[in-house]
# Entry
Amino acid sequence: MRFSKPLTVAFGGMCGAGVRWALQTKFSLSSTEDVPWMVLIINITGCCFLGVLLGKKVKQKIYLLLGVGFCGGMTTFSTFAFDTASLIKGSQLHEALTYASISIIGGLLFFLIGRETSKRWW
# Structure
């Protein structure tokens, strides 16, 4: 059975969002933790995986399924923005800046690591 491009992306996104929800539900330290570490880990992992896919120059259907769909569904900029704004609103400026800095720099760094690793090793 062949999926159209939009259905391929949608299926990957559904799976990625499900993985994010499961990881956040199972492994978040508590609802009162200052910094949402699990969201940070999920986002950085998704950046690394996307880097691997792009480094391997996978076929378009695989990229749509795993890159656009799965990574797009698993990672979440909106949650990152909400969590950062919540920390700022809660007068936790240091935590907000740390979280935002690690998220942005870590995401870029792990994307590059994933991309370069996949080019050299596989």
